[in-house]
Design a protein that fits this description.
It contains eight helices and eight strands. With 217 residues, it is an alpha+beta fold. The longest helix is centred in the C-terminal third of the chain and has 20 residues. It binds iron/sulfur cluster (SF4).
Length: 217
């Protein structure tokens, strides 16, 4: 049976909001409606040094130093079932104090870019949810941006090995976030014409695409 589609909202409004969230300006506002798929998907949650309020609500033994990050950066892991240890009775037990990465996470980035949606995706629960989102397009310009997002995502998928080492995240959600960040380069252009701009942009960008949560190994 095909799962019921979910209303993802107006595409243009969503895109402005998610770009702001990925740039560190505010959080996402996902209509999760009881879904906890991303909390059950074996994800390491990065906690930044200034997140003192969040840290005060997480038992210290659940945090460990983030590899290859400066001192003070931590990760919150997951249990043997891939569940966040702060998920209690199928709800976030520290919701008001949840990590910044959780506030910014939005599985609609997968729906918008087409990344991480396959049946055999490394996060099947999130993929199942993301496949159900349907955006509304108010203007032809929104359709153009949607196409440029998908073109940027396909380009990153096809050329990850040719671009500077480490510039293209291996996992779908941060890769989708990067596609959102560079999609302007594909607006009204063939992918080959956007390629030079992509290489310049990726050299200038920090390696981690914001604080999007990354799946575990
Ligand atoms: S997978 Fe998506 S809808 Fe489900 S809890 Fe995470 S962000 Fe919300």
């Amino acid at each position: 049976m095909t799962a019921r589609p979910l209303d993802a909202g107006d595409f243009g409004t969503w895109l402005v909001g998610i770009q702001q969230a990925l740039d560190g300006d505010g959080g996402s506002d996902v209509p999760c409606d009881g879904c906890t798929a991303c909390c059950r998907s074996s994800q390491f949650i990065p906690i930044e040094p200034d997140e003192t309020e969040t840290r005060s609500h997480i038992p210290p033994e659940l945090l460990f130093p983030a590899p290859r990050r400066p001192e003070g950066h931590a990760l919150l892991g997951y249990d043997e079932h891939g569940r966040c240890p702060m998920l209690v009775d199928d709800a976030c037990s520290i919701y008001e104090h949840r990590p910044r990465a959780c506030r910014r996470y939005d599985c609609r980035v997968l729906a918008a870019t087409g990344l991480g949606l396959a049946e055999d995706a490394d996060q099947p629960l999130v993929a199942e949810r993301a496949r159900r989102w349907r955006f509304a397009y108010a203007t032809p310009g929104d359709r153009d941006r949607d196409e440029s997002l998908r073109a940027a995502a396909s380009y990153l998928d096809d050329h990850a090995g040719d671009l500077p080492e480490g510039a293209v995240p291996a996992h779908a959600a941060p890769r989708a976030a990067l596609a959102i960040g560079i999609h302007d380069l594909f607006l009204g252009r063939e992918p080959d014409a956007a390629a030079v701009g992509v290489a310049v942009e990726l050299r200038a960008r920090p390696r981690a695409a914001g604080s999007v949560r990354r799946p575990g190994p």
